[in-house]
Structure to design on (320 residues):
């Protein structure tokens, strides 16, 4: 008798049946939740194994942004939504323009809240998204595809290469020959407990990769100082309070004086710190800040050792 079941070897890892999933529908809710959590731990391990590739991609992104390039995400379904999420959170967190990190999702804005059937299969739409971005050799185009086979993403990466952009692929299956990228970030998450549902641990791993990619890049660009988001845009009550708290903590000023300093700096935490460290008024402190960055202006902090990389060369500062 014939069968329509595909051999296991023919299926990519994320599509295969999980060996411990056959009884999932027989388990109580608590056991299902525990099993899902166990799978999340696998996602964490898969990302740890991909750290060298993530670091390489983050360095490339930082270098591109430093010279006026952009990070452009392209994905479909869950992968596309995660790209849109990461792009949308960079401006308020790191104080960068919305054009700095952008994202395109197969099916357009409608696909953010509902499935757009067939959109991910459109190779030309992926290429068109990159053309709409007007990607150039200064940009990094990052395709996000858990399966490493999404036609929309393949079309985007092919078009990006034609335009000279550096290409990155974030995936959870080993990519085949048609899906090519300069840097491949592969988080091997394996089968899902709900076969093929890559919104589970593959989605978790992808979110972790994107978190690390942009955060590391912006740390390298000086958007973080002593663990604080010093370029944050204080656009609501919570962020305004956080900005004032950062200034107070990093200057040892009383809250009222820290708030006055922040106001004099136009609500810019980084400029307020530069003014405090240099004793200069806003315009002059801003120029000093642009010339050397905040760490160059700050006084030594006892017990703090800074290790950075500039132009590919490691620089270690002595312990204060």
């Amino acid at each position: 008798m014939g069968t329509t079941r595909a051999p296991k070897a023919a299926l990519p890892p994320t599509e295969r049946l999980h060996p411990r999933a056959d009884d999932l529908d027989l388990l109580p809710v608590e056991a299902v939740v525990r099993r899902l959590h166990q799978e999340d731990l696998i996602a964490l391990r898969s990302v740890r194994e991909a750290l060298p590739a993530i670091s390489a991609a983050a360095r490339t992104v930082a270098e591109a942004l430093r010279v006026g390039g952009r990070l452009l995400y392209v994905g479909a379904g869950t992968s596309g939504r995660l790209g849109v999420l990461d792009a949308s959170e960079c401006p308020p967190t790191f104080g960068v323009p919305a054009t700095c990190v952008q994202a395109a999702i197969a099916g357009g804005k409608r696909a953010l809240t509902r499935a757009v059937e067939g959109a991910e299969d459109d190779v030309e739409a992926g290429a068109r998204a990159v053309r709409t971005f007007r990607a150039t050799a200064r940009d990094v185009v990052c395709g996000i595809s858990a399966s490493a086979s999404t036609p929309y993403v393949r079309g985007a990466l092919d078009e990006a290469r034609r335009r000279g952009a550096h290409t990155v692929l974030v995936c959870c299956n080993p990519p085949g020959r048609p899906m090519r990228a300069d840097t491949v970030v592969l988080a091997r998450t394996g089968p899902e407990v709900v076969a093929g549902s890559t919104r589970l641990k593959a989605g978790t791993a992808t979110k972790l990769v994107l978190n690390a990619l942009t955060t590391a890049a912006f740390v390298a660009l000086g958007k973080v100082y002593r663990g604080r988001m010093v370029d944050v845009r204080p656009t609501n009550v919570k962020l305004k309070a956080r900005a004032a708290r950062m200034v107070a903590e990093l200057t040892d000023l009383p809250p009222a004086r820290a708030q006055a300093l922040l106001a004099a700096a136009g609500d810019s935490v980084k400029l307020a710190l530069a003014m405090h460290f240099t004793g200069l008024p806003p315009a002059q402190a801003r120029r000093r800040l642009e010339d050397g960055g905040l760490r160059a202006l700050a006084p030594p902090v006892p017990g703090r050792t800074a290790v950075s990389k500039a132009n590919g060369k490691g620089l270690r500062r002595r312990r204060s």
Observations:
- Residues 29-49 form the longest helix (21 residues).
- The chain is about 45% helix and 10% strand.
